[in-house]
Design brief:
7 helices, 6-stranded mixed sheet, single chain, binds magnesium ion, binds adenosine-5'-diphosphate, 4-stranded antiparallel sheet
């Protein structure tokens, strides 16, 4: 039904963050509200220092002094253990560091954490399929992660996050340091692996890649939203 289609996967209401600076509180923003619908990619832009990274960190419960309400499928974060929330609201930072070892070690890293202990570990076949989706077909599971190019490492970091099937992906400039081709591969990969019921919010500074449904702008503590004129499809694409 239409109502279900439009239900927000994620809602942030009246979010405020305070940092301590030289013993005094400093708030990049104090009342920010937004919502994300399933199957959609959104961009978050705004001047440097406006609080974009802070907002993503707050959504993933990474900032201690956060006020406001956050809901996942209508359920408040307050009723959930922080680790369980973070498994479902997954932040990929700008320079996501891979762990030493092979590509397989990295893709399976989430399963070394207690919070994923109950979920089934992907097989080698499933991992190889993920690499294929990321256009990493020349990369073997046994390859050393440290020997991958920057673009390949960024895609492995993204796959590692997607492998646990979060409901919300928060991407903080994950393609900032990449060449145009690798950046486009990251965008395609995001679209490809984003499930119909999951949402993605991306901080990015590159030219519009046509994948975002709408764009949030954070400036002077105020968030605004604009629907993108050419609405991308709500359906995940089947291949790359
Ligand atoms: P953006 O990602 O939009 O560039 P940030 O969220 O990184 O902005 O930073 C917003 C503001 O908060 C900046 O003024 C920054 O200096 C400040 N800030 C960020 N992190 C911290 C922190 N851990 N402690 C104190 N101030 C911080
Ligand atoms: Mg930032």
């Amino acid at each position: 039904m239409a109502i279900m289609d439009c239900m927000a996967v994620f809602e942030a209401k009246h979010i405020g963050v305070r940092y301590m600076r030289g013993g005094k509180p400093f708030a990049p923003f104090s009342d920010v509200s937004f919502s994300l619908e399933g199957g959609r990619i959104y961009d978050l832009t705004g001047p440097s220092g406006s609080g974009k990274s802070t907002l993503l960190n707050a959504c993933a419960l990474m900032v201690s002094r956060t006020e406001g309400e956050m809901l996942l499928d209508g359920a408040s974060f307050e009723g959930m253990k922080p680790n369980e929330w973070r498994r479902q609201v997954c932040l990929v930072p700008q320079s996501a560091s891979l762990v030493p070892g092979t590509v397989r070690d990295n893709l399976l890293f989430p399963w070394t954490l207690k919070v994923n202990a109950g979920s089934p570990r992907p097989t080698d076949g499933e991992l190889a399929e993920l690499l294929n989706k990321a256009a990493l077909d020349g990369v073997e599971l046994d390859h050393s992660a440290a020997q991958l190019s920057g673009g390949q490492q960024a895609r492995v970091a993204l796959l590692r996050a997607f492998a646990t099937r979060p409901r919300v992906m928060l991407l903080d400039e994950v393609e900032a340091a990449l060449d145009d081709e690798s950046a486009l591969a990251v965008s395609r990969l995001t679209r490809c692996v984003l499930a119909k019921e999951a949402a993605c919010l991306r901080i990015r500074h590159r030219a519009d890649d046509g994948y975002a449904y709408g764009t949030f702008t954070l400036a002077d503590g105020v968030i605004s939203y604009e629907q993108n004129p050419a609405k991308p499809t709500n359906e995940p694409v089947s291949g790359l």
